[in-house]
């Protein structure tokens, strides 16, 4: 189900005026994850290193064909958790299922992992290395070569086939690492800061491919510190702090959970509203206000009041907190518990 955003240009008297060329509704092309059909399931996962608990009773689900943001401050346990999911290390207790199977009992789980610290062999040639890595994940030589060639053409880097990795810039290495992550067509793709070192053009190129892979059925677990990328790309988020899940839900539902009933109103003329028991007025400019609802009032009550005052409303929208604000607020609150 897409989101519906209500937008209008002007309210005059008791009438809402919308230009004919302006659509009444805009439907987001972002489709919510199918939360009844999970690719990855974690239940009560624990990992200790000596006396330090890096992962503490972590449980969450990753739906099929979904982009999920895995967030948390430095040292929160994200990397430890990713290493457990990929089988680099094993959990001390708890259960991890991939397609309803114990992940540690699957001979070759369909996972692609792009670590933050890139893991390419610097002395190997790009084409040779990508084919080698794809074959390690179970592809036959001819299938590996076909997939790698296809990805290199897509990224317009065929001329890099005989280059050594050590000859590449950080951004160029990033594109090669991405191909190594996805060339064996994994169902679960784990990306740790995938846009680090990329210019805006190549960032958009990788974003488009991530969305395409998701639309073709892959699930992406996306770890980043860039909150604007979370809002732009993710449909679901999981926030970890001190080894525990402290926030878990659909992006829009999480934003609504933290909303402050605050609205932005732009008027056609200047207005200094009197104090009101139902609204808190916060002047922004002579013709613009932020309004916070008090008690049980709704946004319709704001509009009704302004219309009664004879004011023409140019624009009206709810102000939802950014994920950067939600992240900081949640981490601070949980750190003091």
Write a structural description.
This protein has 337 residues and is α+β, with helices and mostly antiparallel strands. The protein has two domains: 4-28 and 260-319, no CATH class; 38-256, P-loop containing nucleotide triphosphate hydrolases (Rossmann fold, 3-Layer(aba) Sandwich), CATH 3.40.50.300. It is built from nine helices and 18 strands. The chain has helices spanning 78-86, 126-136, 141-154, 170-182, 200-215, 227-233, 251-257, 299-308, 323-335; strands spanning 4-6, 10-12, 15-17, 25-27, 38-49, 52-63, 67-71, 93-98, 101-102, 111-114, 188-192, 219-223, 236-241, 244-250, 262-267, 279-285, 288-293, 313-318. The strands form five sheets. Strands 10-11-12-7-13-14 form a six-stranded mixed sheet, with helices on both faces. A four-stranded antiparallel sheet has the order 6-5-8-9, with helices on one face. Strand 5 (38-49) and strand 6 form a beta hairpin. Helix 2 (126-136) crosses helix 3 (141-154). Mean pLDDT is 85; it is low at 1-31.
Describe the structure concisely for a colleague.
The protein is an alpha+beta fold and 337 residues long. The chain has helices at residues 78-86, 126-136, 141-154, 170-182, 200-215, 227-233, 251-257, 299-308, 323-335, and strands at 4-6, 10-12, 15-17, 25-27, 38-49, 52-63, 67-71, 93-98, 101-102, 111-114, 188-192, 219-223, 236-241, 244-250, 262-267, 279-285, 288-293, 313-318.
Topology summary:
Blueprint: E1 4-6, E2 10-12, E3 15-17, E4 25-27, E5 38-49, E6 52-63, E7 67-71, H1 78-86, E8 93-98, E9 101-102, E10 111-114, H2 126-136, H3 141-154, H4 170-182, E11 188-192, H5 200-215, E12 219-223, H6 227-233, E13 236-241, E14 244-250, H7 251-257, E15 262-267, E16 279-285, E17 288-293, H8 299-308, E18 313-318, H9 323-335
Helix pairs in contact: 2-3
């Amino acid at each position: 189900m897409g989101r519906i955003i209500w937008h209008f240009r002007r309210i005059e008297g008791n009438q809402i005026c919308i230009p004919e060329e302006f659509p009444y509704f805009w439907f987001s092309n972002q489709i919510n994850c199918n939360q009844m059909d999970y690719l990855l399931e974690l239940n009560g996962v624990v990992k200790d290193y000596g006396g330090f608990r890096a992962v503490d009773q972590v449980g969450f689900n990753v739906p099929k064909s979904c982009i999920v943001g895995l967030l948390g401050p430095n040292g929160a346990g994200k990397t430890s958790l990713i290493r457990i999911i990929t089988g680099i290390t094993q959990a001390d207790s708890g259960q991890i299922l991939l397609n309803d199977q114990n992940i540690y009992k699957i001979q070759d789980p369909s996972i692609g992992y792009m670590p933050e610290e890139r893991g390419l062999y610097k002395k190997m040639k790009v084409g040779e290395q990508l084919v080698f890595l794809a074959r390690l994940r179970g592809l036959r030589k001819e299938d590996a070569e076909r997939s790698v060639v296809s990805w290199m053409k897509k990224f317009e880097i065929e001329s890099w086939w005989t280059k050594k990795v050590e000859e590449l810039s950080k951004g160029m290495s990033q594109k090669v690492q991405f191909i190594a992550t996805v060339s064996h067509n994994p169902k679960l793709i784990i990306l740790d800061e995938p846009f680090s070192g990329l210019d805006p053009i190549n960032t958009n190129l990788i974003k488009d491919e991530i969305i395409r892979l998701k639309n073709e059925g892959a699930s992406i677990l996306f770890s980043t510190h860039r909150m604007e990328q979370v809002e732009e790309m993710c449909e679901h988020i999981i926030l970890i702090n001190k080894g525990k899940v402290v926030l878990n839900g659909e992006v829009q539902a999480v934003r609504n959970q933290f909303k402050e009933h605050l609205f932005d109103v732009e008027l056609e003329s200047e207005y200094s509203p009197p104090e009101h028991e139902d609204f808190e007025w916060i002047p922004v400019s002579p013709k613009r206000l932020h309004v916070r609802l008090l008690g049980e009032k709704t946004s319709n009550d704001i509009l009704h009041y302004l219309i009664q005052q004879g004011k023409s409303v140019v624009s009206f929208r709810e102000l939802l907190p950014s994920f950067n604000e939600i992240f900081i607020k949640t981490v601070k609150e949980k750190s003091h518990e």
